[in-house]
User: What shape does this take?
Amino acid sequence: MRAVILFIFLLAPLFCFAGLEYNDLILQAQQPEMSDQQRGAYRNLATQIYNEMNPYYAEVCTATQYLPHVPRATKGGTGGHATLFLQGACLDESSEYPKLKMCDETTPQSDPHKGVGVSLNLMFSNVRFVAIPGRDNFFKGPEKWGQAITPEVVEKTRAYYFSKPWHNNIKIASEERDGCSCINFKCLPNELKQCLIDKNTGIDFAISYARTSYCTKLPLPKEALAKIVSHLNKQNTQAYIQAKNGKRGYKYDVLLDNCSHLIHNALASTGFFDPKKQLSSNLINKLRALPSEWLADLGFTYFTGGEFGYMSVPIHNFNRIAQRSIKLPVKIPELMWKNKDVSKTLSRYSWIPSGSGNMIEVIGMRTNNSSFDEGEVGVGFLLAKEDFEQFTNPYDSDFKPYYSDLCQNLQFHKDNLNTALSKTSMWLTSLSSKMRFNKRQFYKTYNEAIGISLSKVNDDLDIYRSHGFSCD
Assistant: This one.
């Protein structure tokens, strides 16, 4: 009973929203009196409902610049950071280095360790990424929403993560050991682990302590998530084995091999879009990388290794996924027929990568905070500010409420899919005999996939209403 009373007390003032809102910036603007504790309770409910609808999804985030005021932490670059959260994947606790696995089907959605956060770090030398089990451990940290983030709280948080095995056996590159309590290669394992945790609190874990995360949520077929898990495991296994054999397992390169490359290519393993070709790290290739995204956007893909160029920037991951999921023109079948990526996802999984749950989430930095300053998001890298803010800023002229309001998101995708179903059904009935065989087969597959997606939207609307929300 006490839990019910607390739930009502925290959330009652927030039900005035048209639907569940996943953008903290909008929540703060519309209800400035909302406390961190209330926003945390609201977010927990929103996540619970979303996970009930989508047991498998990738959440790709770009985080703001890291600006710490605590000992043993260093200011981050202006490009921010790219992270990945995978719902339906778990940490493989039997592995001696960070490795993933598909979660046990019997694990309930409410399990705090279901889902895993992935973050590549420039300090690592024998793996590419650390894996943090559980959404709260990755984004929220051990302290409850509403807790002031003081230097004392940061030290307590560091002790919490040091007590966990998640950073065990990860080695630090010698050039990144400044500020560690050891010198060169004389570091003891626990000294390395403590240094990693001290320098990366609010970067690879407890991210909300230090940064706002701008995220695109991409529901996935189970088989597609398994592809991502396999790809990431291969990356860490290769690095770890190489390091065990006396070679450098991983060396960070801000232009050619960074946090954003890892996430882009993990998603590309599903067929969602093309992978980025990665060049070896040398001066000539760095010079090739710098203009490559700009040249690729102009269509000179022959010189850039493909449609995305060699360089990778966190904010571009966010924008590309939003453009290719939320804004995918599914109700124009002719455009889908010409889209090679949609053809791949249809043939592999009968999956159209736009539908219920393709949306934006903004997880705001803790506001009661004396340990970290709020940084800027890394726009300006060949991406106009308005191209980013159209998805995140409600005052932008191109912003649409369905980007982050769950009710409006469900209704938008339902309308889109109904239009697409009507058009493909009509064309299959009246024009099928005039279509080439491969085009006719595409339309049939596309029509069936639309039906599956529509069924999911209707199921999700039922889940939404079952939690006491209306959505008409």
The beta strands are 57-63, 66-68, 81-87, 89-91, 100-102, 116-120, 129-133, 213-219, 359-363, 372-374.
